[in-house]
Design a protein that fits this description.
- By secondary structure, the chain is mainly beta.
- Strands 2, 4, 5, 6, 9, 10 and 11 form a 7-stranded mixed beta sheet that branches. It has a 4-stranded antiparallel beta sheet with strand order 1-3-8-7, with no helix packed on it.
- Strand 7 and strand 8 form a beta hairpin.
Length: 114
């Protein structure tokens, strides 16, 4: 099983980034997927989630700025991040849940700074 994130980097405040997560080794279409993030010195927190029917939920801090989507044909999860703020700086992780197993990616760094 693998979850591989990509698309992180350095962006100025107000900018955009699109993260991707490529999944393999499990039935992606049957898994609930989510994005988490962890800033230095802080606990890992949920950014948002997308179910098998593509219903979505978001943390209040990113609602209206971030959009989660999935492409089951490509076994891929996405996170479109707009209007980025310095407080969005963190390592972003892809998570898959296919009961009873939980899978994590290795993370991708997002740094929002001028």
């Amino acid at each position: 099983v693998q979850l591989v994130e990509s698309g992180g980097g350095l962006v100025q405040p107000g900018g955009s980034l699109r993260l991707s997560c490529a999944a393999s080794g499990f039935t992606f279409s049957r898994a609930a997927m989510s994005w988490y993030r962890q800033a230095p010195g802080k606990e890992r927190e949920l950014v948002g989630a997308i179910g098998t029917t593509s219903s979505t939920t978001y943390a209040d801090s990113v609602k209206g700025r971030f959009t989660i989507s999935r492409d089951n044909g490509k076994n891929s999860l996405y996170l479109q991040m707009n209007s980025l703020k310095s407080e969005d700086t963190a390592v972003y992780y892809c998570r898959g849940f296919l009961n009873p197993r939980v899978y994590w990616g290795q993370g991708t760094q997002v740094t929002v700074s001028s």
